Amino acid sequence: MNERMNTAVDASPRTRDSAQAGAALELADVRKAYGTREALRGVTLKVDRGEFVALLGPNGAGKSTLFQLLTGLFNADSGRLAVCGHDIRKAPVAALAHLGVVFQQSTLDLDLGVAANLKFHAALHGLGGRHARDRVADALGRLGLTERAGDPVRELSGGNRRKVELARALVHEPAVLLMDEATVGLDPASRRQLLDEVLALRARGVAVLWATHLVDEAEAADRVVVLHRGQILAEGRPQALADQAGTATLADAFLQMTGGGGERSD
Ligand SMILES: Nc1ncnc2c1ncn2[C@@H]1O[C@H](COP(=O)(O)OP(=O)(O)OP(=O)(O)O)[C@@H](O)[C@H]1O
């Protein structure tokens, strides 16, 4: 039985301590099993400030499980997870304050306006009044959504809805952004646009962990971490991984490493 954690978030700037040294995101020997099925088998991983890391894995690799642990939804069976030096288990409020997340499935309220969705999120992070309004306006402006601020989310295209989710994830100015298969269902142009928006966050020092099973998205990363059946098989710059595997492309290296398949049948 998984022990539920306290995920209440008080992410006001008061709790911000970005002067913390060390990695923005750090996992050490993280393990998680569902019954006898081992979803994560000793994952160790670091993401630095301003670094974009692609977590590349086929179906069933353990990407979503990793994100569930990082967002405090479940506890790891063992190992350590920390955000800006804050242990997720021991200091969940401080850790989550530094985290922005875009989940695979949309979590927007379709009947609320675009800005209202963001304001609700800001309030959850302890932001209110003018400060919240400014942050919301800033986040929407950055993603070119100012004109749509008053529109119900339901009226937006799939691509713009994803942008709203990204804007929402950035409202409290997190140091770490988690993107869990965030481009699923988007057309190629919208996919590229979202990826470019997130790549641009590096210039602001945001650390990004971008989970995907799409090799072309991983090719844009500073570093690629290949996750397969709960273990990291390789990590490095996209071309370095291909060189290491003796293949022409990252796609070929990925196929060679994972055998083209993901899920175990056990
Ligand atoms: N709640 C659960 N109960 C039992 N097994 C689970 C549960 N969630 C995930 N698993 C199993 O854990 C392993 C890792 O799954 P996970 O969803 O984390 O992988 P993933 O990389 O996100 O895959 P996908 O890309 O298909 O979403 C798989 O074998 C999956 O079947």
From TrEMBL:
GO MF: ATP binding; ATP hydrolysis activity
Extract the SMART domains matched here. Answer: AAA (SM00382)
Instruction: State a single Pfam family of this protein.
Output: ABC_tran
Ranges for domain ABC transporter come to 25-254
Q: Keywords in alphabetical order, please.
A: ATP-binding, Cell membrane, Membrane, Nodulation, Nucleotide-binding, Transport
Family annotation (InterPro entries): AAA+_ATPase, ABC_transporter-like_ATP-bd, ABC_transporter-like_CS, ABC_transporter_ATP-binding, ABC_transprt_ATP-bd_su_PQQ, P-loop_NTPase
Indicate the family of this protein.
Belongs to the ABC transporter superfamily.
The protein in question is named ABC-2 type transport system ATP-binding protein
